[in-house]
Every structure is written in C-alpha cells, then in structure tokens.
Amino acid sequence: MELETARLRLDALQPADAEALFRYRSDPxxxxxxxxQPETLVDAGRFIGKxxxxxxxxAWFQRAIRLHRGELIGDLGFCLxxxxxxxxxxxxxxxxxxxxxxxxxxxxxxxxxxxxxDVRRVHASVDPRNTPSMAxxxxxxxxxxxxxxxxxxxxxxxxxxxxxxxxxxxxxGSAQRTQ
Length: 179
Ligand SMILES: CC(C)(COP(=O)(O)OP(=O)(O)OC[C@H]1O[C@@H](n2cnc3c(N)ncnc32)[C@H](O)[C@@H]1OP(=O)(O)O)[C@@H](O)C(=O)NCCC(=O)NCCS
Prior knowledge:
Elements: E1 3-4, E2 8-11, H1 18-25, H2 28-31, H3 41-49, E3 60-67, E4 72-80, E5 85-92, H4 101-114, E6 121-126, H5 131-139, E7 143-154, E8 157-167, H6 172-178
Parallel strand pairs: 5-6
Antiparallel strand pairs: 1-2, 2-3, 3-4, 4-5, 6-8, 7-8
The structure holds coenzyme A (COA).
Coenzyme A (COA) binds next to strand 5, helix 4, strand 6 and helix 5.
C-alpha cells in the first residue's frame, strides 16, 4: 500500500529509517500519550523489521510518512478488524508538526480505508489531554462518540479515553467516488 498526496508519500518503513524514527519516537513530548516508545536505536530497528507487507485483520499495519524527497517525517498505523472496522493512530516528528501534514496523511489513509479497503467504520482513541490529537480528529470531521473516565491504566495512572469515529458514508471522499 503506497499513497501519494500533494506533499507526502506514505509507504513502507525501511531499515534506513531507524535513526529518524528513533529520534522522534523517543522524544518525550511525542511519546507522552503513546503506548510504544523505543528505548534504543535497536528497538526502532526491530519495530521496522517486524512490519508486515500487507494489512491483515487483528494486526497493526504501519506506513512511513515522507516528504516527496524521501525524508521520514512521521508514521501512521491502522488495525483492521474482521468485521470491516479500523482503528488508526499517527505520529509526527516535532519539526513537522503544525503544518497540516498529519491532516493530509490521515485524509489519504481514510480515502484508502473507506475506498479500496471497503472499511465501514474508522475510529481512534485519544487521551483528552493530548490537545493536538483532539484538534486533528475534529479537523478531520471525526465525531466524538465517547469520553470514558479513568478507563485505561497507563504508565501507572488511570487515564481518560476519548473515542472518535466516522462511518464510510460520512466521509466526504465517498460521495466523490460514487459519482
Ligand atoms: C497528534 C499529531 C499527529 C497532530 O499533528 P499536527 O502536526 O499537529 O497536525 P496538523 O498540523 O495536521 O493539524 C491538524 C489540525 O489540528 C490543529 N492543531 C494542531 N495542533 C494544535 C494545538 N496544539 N491546539 C489546537 N489546534 C491544533 C491544526 O490547526 C489543524 O486544524 P485545521 O486543519 O482546522 O487547521 C502530533 O501532535 C503528534 O505527532 N503528536 C505526538 C504523537 C501522538 O500523541 N499521536 C496521537 C495518537 S492518535
């Protein structure tokens, strides 16, 4: 699965990406609300090495987010269920946050999920303290469907979990595809 947008390319993570991935994924500001954080460059290399080549139900499938010249500026992943749903998450390197790149990358992902992969519902789980992530979900038009209070045990604390979702028929891209 390779996707191209006006400014970005989404494709497979490569062994050569390990250093860049390690740099932004181990940044405390980036890792604050995330379940996985590499401790070492070797961890980042292992993460890249265990990626599967095609999406499969029940497994996270990760894509690199690159500028057209090839530079890795983030990554996103999704996990399909076997009943036509998908959860997604995204991480951008600090130097490339706030430029609309995350929005552009997720828009391409949603087009692919609702289009070629025929997913009927997409959802994402966000810690409400994660202001940029809450803003990203809203700017994509995802609906906040739940705010669970202290429902997750995360690094020793009970934390809230906000669920955002969208159905295929609500994605603006789907109207264009059926015309
Ligand atoms: C969450 C994350 C990917 C968002 O990336 P980003 O670079 O801020 O996203 P974009 O530049 O595409 O901005 C998306 C929207 O959010 C808004 N936004 C971004 N940061 C914001 C902030 N701190 N406060 C208010 N709005 C903000 C932007 O203005 C934009 O809205 P618009 O399209 O209406 O203009 C990024 O902050 C990140 O990688 N965080 C660390 C990893 C993480 O926590 N991921 C979340 C897992 S789901």
